[in-house]
Specification:
The protein is built from five helices and five strands; from the N terminus they run E-H-E-H-E-H-E-H-E-H. The protein is of the alpha/beta class. The chain has a single domain, classed as Rossmann fold.
């Protein structure tokens, strides 16, 4: 169905990474919004909730891990895939324990990323289809 593509938000301070990820995701049929910082994402995201968030761990200002904690504290249950060039096993384990959908070290294989995004957007769709408990 045209117009029903899930939106993936990419938050990374590296312009070339944002452009490359946007190109890859669009070629796979996703709508993509890119942001250069956590602050920009929070300011622009507003009421639009992406189906998935690709989030760089290390960014100036608010880190990806801090943004994730902030989103969780606000009750925004967006599936997050962390991407990092400087991660380690302890960081990955901590992110996954906190509820991240996945944790990928740069450089990562395009197919691995697309599979992670597919799983995260499917999870998002299931959450949106579930009746909310208030």
């Amino acid at each position: 169905m045209i117009g029903c593509e899930p939106t993936v938000a990419v938050v990374d301070d590296d312009l070339s990474v944002r452009r490359g990820l946007a190109r890859l995701l669009r070629s796979a049929g996703y709508r993509v919004e890119t942001f250069s910082s956590a602050r920009e994402f929070l300011a622009c995201a507003g009421s639009r909730r992406p189906a998935c968030l690709l989030l760089d761990v290390s960014m100036p200002g608010q880190s990806g891990l801090q943004l994730y904690d902030d989103l969780v504290a606000r009750g925004q249950n967006i599936p997050v895939i962390f991407i990092t060039g400087h991660g380690d096993a302890a960081m990955a384990a901590s992110a996954m324990k906190a509820g991240a959908a996945d944790f990928l070290s740069k450089p990562f294989d395009d197919k691995v990323l697309l599979r992670a995004v597919e799983q995260a957007t499917a999870k998002s769709n299931r959450q949106n289809d579930s009746p909310s408990v208030r």
